[in-house]
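Quick illustration, no need to memorize.
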Amino acid sequence: MNDRRKAVADDLRVLAGDLRNLVQTATTDLDARKRKERRWRLLSTAFALLATLATRRVTAKLWALLTGEQPPAKGPPPQPPAASAAHPGESPFSQSVSPAPADGSQASSMRR
């Protein structure tokens, strides 16, 4: 008798849960729920962005305080300045090529 009563009570609990879900689904506005979820996503994204910016600032100040140097820059390492060209707009590679002598001495040595 107790087993039957327990089984009926379990079935009634399951039925009550199903009815609760049915009522909730029938009375919930899906568009309003999507708007709430979108607002939540925007709020959490904004908070994450602000936390990241604050963390970077604090870390940069701590780095300067602990090492006495400026923190490393984000991005590729700085490149040394390029060799200056003789004429503006001229490639630095064009300076390394020298013209052939006018007397043709180099040209004759290459034919041998």
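The helical segments are 2-27, 30-67, 105-111.
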